[in-house]
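Why does residue order matter? Because the sequence determines the fold. Keep that principle in mind as you read this record.
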Amino acid sequence: MQKAAAQVEVAPWGNLTGIRTDGQLLEFATSLRLVKVDGHVTETGKERQRPKYTRAGNQQLITTQLDSLDFVETVQDTGPGQARVQVQLTARNSMPDSSGAYFSVQPPTAVYPASSAVEVRDARGTVLATGTLASLNLPNTPASSIRLVAPTRQLTITFGEPMPVQLKQERGREGPYYRFYLPLLTGSAQRGQTTQKTFTFQATGSIDQSPINLTLNPAQPGRPFAGFGGNFRLQNPKTDPQVIDYSLQNMRVAWSRVEMPWQLWQPLQDQDPTAAARQGKLHPHVRESMEMAQKLSKQGIPIILSAWSAPAWAVVGTPARGSGPGPDGKWGNPLEPSKLPASYKSIADYIQYLKDQYAVDVALFSFNESDLGINIRQTGQEHAQLIKELGAYFASRGLKTKLLLGDNSDANSYEFMTPALQDASTHPYIGAVSFHSWRGWETETLQKWAAAAEQLRLPLIVGEGSIDAQAWGYPAIFLEPTYALEEISLYMRLLAVCQPFTILQWQLTADYSPMAGGGIFGDNTPLRPTQRFWNLKQFASTPENVMALPITADRPDVAAAALGNNQKGTYVVHLVNNGATRRATLTGVPATVKKLRVYTTDQARAMQKGKPVKVKKGTAQFALEAGTYTTLMTK
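Structure:
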């Protein structure tokens, strides 16, 4: 049995989340913070900066910026439960309105309640102050360490040099919490000013190895699951083909999504794009995108066609081509109302040409993330209008293509669906409901999407699946076991909460690649699958013709999802253990099942087949190892 080692975990934007010991994360949260004299605070966080992330052995290196301050943060494992953080700061420009830059530490309230004991010492070990998080009075004397003691955890922070410490009570969405402020630079910053501080963390505590009980309920099957799928938007001509071919040859891809380069299909309104294509004037990227759809279709994989951008004639204003807001603060461009009939014809011509010349039937069509404007922007009302009018136009042309409701940038903007949901005239033209899984993972939010699909009695599709929309900017994070485990954990959560018809990985190309080497992200070593690829392959090995089955886990660190077909006697249980190794008991297995095959993926194993688990009277017992993705399935 593999034993998980101690390892500090840090997000690619520089925030530590804790130290993992024997598979269990001993949590604490850090961030870099810039405080202005008016009290305004800017801090490092997901999608707030454009950081860079790399790893060298047991060191993780993050470079980022807050206003005019450049940070280089080096995080290193230094022993069991221990890590050292070095922060270098350089002011590119003077900042007279700054009151200071800080390294902040937030003990999680669930682990360190307000009654947790705090002890502050100086460099000689003399106690300067004691109390609780709620009652501590900090002296002005510079301190050298802080120690927190909670019922099940202890955390000691030692400073490389004495410094004054601040402790503040703050309030977030989940209520009040406490945060320590450790100064990096106090007062106004001067151009060229530099500083360097070092902090050492020691986290200890009890490891939860209590057994886990899993309860399966095959008597209440939910919605069908067609299987795992992928996005195949072509962006890297040199490195995409190898990842696409490897993925298609080595995993079952149940559904797919490809690009319609609309802006290149008909750049001029008075042009006949079909005639131009037949005359050999098809833009190379359009041809490659159509060939990509053809390649997938030949393998029997259904096609979702999505347009990211529109021709200049079809939108209001100058077309947005970037991935950010314009001068008005808005993303993308709305469609030009007077050109909608011409736009509908242009899109239908593309779909018809795909059918006629490449034998591709497009199942579903969408504008990518039009709720946000990447790069076509719509209101909910305009989205409903599009579904009604374009759907009707498709039907008038004899095309079976339906529209996606949503295809939103994340789950949070679910109100974008409301006008179409409330307008029954849109419903005949909707083929599925879709959102992207970059944000909005709360149960209540995800249930909104499940409810919409239930209302329409249509499939729910996760049109883009993964966890960090900016990860392309720091691709070294794709090789981290932490990222791999979080990504597959989310998929299990989506299966359990939403019961999607399919989840389409972003992407099964070199973009956000599940492969390494082969020139991808500058890595010229031989092409090879990563832990993420094996996670996806293991997930994609879910049998066909299954439905979501309820399953519960009585421990919070395990993400569980189950699927099955009672008529065929086919069952699969997916488990992601984000905690320590423990014994697991699975009950509720149908009496016809006598054995379950076991596959495990982690940092060291690639969908490794284990010893079959025996099932006796509907119960199976097995070891669930730390930091693993484990799948149990019938033959």
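The longest helix spans residues 340-358.
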